[in-house]
């Protein structure tokens, strides 16, 4: 179901972006695509509070039903009226609100389904399915919106989420009960989450490290590859090839954990991110084949580290705070990624294109010093036999 849900998300993202470009200027289209991140960033911590108090399954069910309602409303509206900036903005904002409540609860579900020792294997399967679903959804989304328009895209996506709703309602059942946070005003619950972070150094280190991961690789992949291909005259097809290698590497990296699981999950995950930092640096220099190799390495280390560190996070964070801590890691992306993208572009304009790759990759390697110096992470094993 994770693959189907992520395929639906990818399909909708492609449909929204394509339609926005058709009906608005590039600047307004960018505003539409980014509109969902604003309410998500504002509401995410409240979603974390609810995730720590309520039944995660019910929260996931409720907000997937709302997603279906939004998609059906968009499809009906577009069938009677041509797509407009207003309807696209409203749809993007509504999806952002649903994400803000859904994601923190969904982030706690793994801990309720499997034992802590089994989290890496579960994560490997889930993330491999997620990446394959995202790639498939993006490909299908492009075809559907190009040939049948936004109404068809919204209808197909509504169908995928209806299947997810049915799965959650009928088959999804938690096996392990988590400690629940006490009921209190939402703002006090958020403040208590920050207090918990300040007095638990292991959790704090994990949250800081996980919050900053995409800030290095996101701009390098999302903007840097296009800049390099443009400067070198490789063409758009080269960017597509690099992205494909990244996706294949990520899927292989994730599934490898199920076959070759390290004894110390956190240590292996953080060392993989050191290698990823070196890969980011390598993207900025050399011919196309070295960039392709670096993209594959970045994907493989991202998939590998993501499985191991997500498992470590779920297994070690106090379950009464798991939703809030997960919301904080997601908040780093929503709030800081636009700044990271702008900074990468500004550095490339002011210097040479290789400079931001070197600085961002070097920053990632330097950031990993913090957890790798922590004895808890160096020795931690989720497998009780070790």
Automatic annotation (TrEMBL):
UniProt GO MF annotations: transmembrane transporter activity
Localization annotation: Cell membrane
Main location: membrane
One GO CC term, this protein: plasma membrane
Cited Gene3D superfamilies: MFS general substrate transporter like domains
Record bears the keyword Cell cycle: no
The keyword Chaperone belongs to this UniProt entry's keyword annotation: no
Record's protein name: MFS transporter
Spans traversing the lipid bilayer: 27-47, 156-173, 206-227, 239-258, 270-298, 304-323, 344-370
Organism: Microbacterium maritypicum (Microbacterium liquefaciens)
Membrane topology according to the record: Multi-pass membrane protein
Alphabetical keyword list: Cell membrane, Membrane, Transmembrane, Transmembrane helix
A Pfam family matched in the record: MFS_1
Classification via InterPro entries: MFS, MFS_trans_sf
């Amino acid at each position: 179901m994770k693959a189907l849900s992520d395929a639906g998300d990818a399909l909708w993202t492609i449909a929204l972006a394509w339609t926005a470009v058709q009906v608005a200027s590039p600047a307004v289209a960018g505003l539409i695509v980014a509109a969902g991140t604003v309410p998500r960033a504002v509401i995410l911590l409240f979603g974390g509070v609810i995730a720590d108090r309520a039944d995660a399954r019910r929260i996931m069910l409720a907000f997937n039903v709302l997603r279906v309602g939004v998609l059906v409303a968009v499809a009906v509206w577009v069938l009677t009226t041509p797509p407009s900036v207003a309807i696209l903005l409203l749809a993007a904002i509504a999806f952002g609100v649903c994400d803000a409540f859904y994601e923190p609860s969904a982030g706690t579900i793994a801990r309720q389904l499997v034992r802590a020792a089994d989290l890496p294997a579960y994560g490997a399967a889930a993330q491999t399915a997620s990446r394959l679903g995202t790639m498939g959804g993006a490909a299908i989304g492009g075809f559907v919106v190009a040939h049948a328009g936004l109404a068809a895209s919204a209808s197909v996506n509504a169908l995928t989420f209806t299947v997810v709703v049915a799965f959650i309602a009928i088959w999804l059942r938690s096996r392990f009960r988590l400690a629940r946070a006490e009921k209190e005003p939402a703002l006090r619950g958020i403040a208590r989450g920050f207090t918990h972070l300040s007095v638990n150094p292991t959790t704090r280190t994990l949250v800081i490290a996980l919050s900053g991961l995409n800030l290095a690789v996101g701009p390098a992949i999302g903007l840097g590859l296009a800049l390099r291909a443009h400067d070198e005259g490789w063409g758009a097809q080269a960017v597509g090839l690099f992205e494909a290698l990244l996706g294949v590497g990520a899927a292989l990296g994730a599934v490898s954990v199920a076959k070759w699981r390290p004894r110390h999950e956190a240590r292996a995950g953080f060392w993989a991110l050191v290698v990823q930092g070196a890969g980011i640096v390598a993207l900025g220099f050399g011919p196309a084949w070295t960039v392709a190799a670096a993209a594959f390495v970045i994907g493989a280390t991202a998939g590998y580290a993501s499985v191991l560190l997500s498992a470590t996070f779920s297994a070690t964070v106090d379950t009464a705070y798991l939703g809030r801590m997960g919301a904080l890691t997601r908040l780093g992306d929503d709030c800081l990624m636009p700044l990271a993208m702008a900074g990468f572009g500004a550095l490339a304009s002011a210097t040479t294109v290789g400079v931001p790759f070197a600085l961002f990759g070097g920053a990632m390697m330097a950031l990993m010093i913090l957890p790798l110096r922590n004895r808890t992470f160096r020795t931690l094993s989720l497998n009780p036999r070790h």
